[in-house]
Design a protein that fits this description.
Helix content is 47%, strand content 13%. By secondary structure, the chain is α/β, with parallel strands linked by helices. It is globular, with a radius of gyration of 18 Å. The relative contact order is 0.14.
Amino acid sequence: MINNKLTGMGVALITPFKTDETIDFDALARLVEYQIKNGTDYLVVCGTTAETPTLTPQEKEAITKFVVRQVNGRLPIVLGAGGNNTKALVETLQTGDFSGIDAILSVTPYYNKPSQEGLYRHYEAIAKTSPLPLILYNVPGRTGVNMTAQTTLRLANDFPNICATKEASGNFTQIDDIIKNKPENFMLISGDDGITFPLITLGAVGVISVIGNAFPKEFSRMVRLALQGDYEKARQIHHRFNELIELLFVEGNPAGVKSMLAVMGYIDNVLRLPLAPNTIKTYEKIRLVLREL
């Protein structure tokens, strides 16, 4: 059942690059194994944290197939498939190979700034086409448009294969409205590491995490404890990570988590333009906080 597969901590995998900016598949294999061995519940491939706007369609396909082979059924896999051209996205869903994939994560259309009716019709077209369960993704800070609770609930009620929403609006009133009024089997997943703990106390089923790339064991434990109702222990871990999570996003995502992974020796600290690595000042702050942790 898809609900069981999407409960807990999913990790939005980064894309490791070599110094020449080609994909570092050896580093990607190490990261996948690191996740599997340290408590991650599922992986998200080719999400926004993977720098997908800078990847070619061929590279996205190669990364997806590589991760599916590497995981070999040991964890569920969610594939990012979003865009601001509804027709093109529908064609992708109709013609793509989704072997080894358990669900699709689709971000709200960016830049176009559609109305709520436009958002509804966009996801209606996707839901009617998708061969897999669909996760909505609302992240207005990146897309320029917020999908309201009313639109999310309308989609959740009208299309049974829309199984969840990844909410990164940071709007607690909106998120609580969705949790309070959603269909029974519809799930709300935190899209923001820093507020995952309080969202679980409201009824979220977990998180699709960025910091989990670097700290899968510790962060998945916090999520698990919170889901079990052990709020005191979960809160202690939540507070330990506060400073690091703030540093994670101060100069954009995934610059922060790539700095962390570089300090830990997992990857080269390389991003594709227009993204750039953290400044030396932020990098040193991350290194010092990691040492303390």
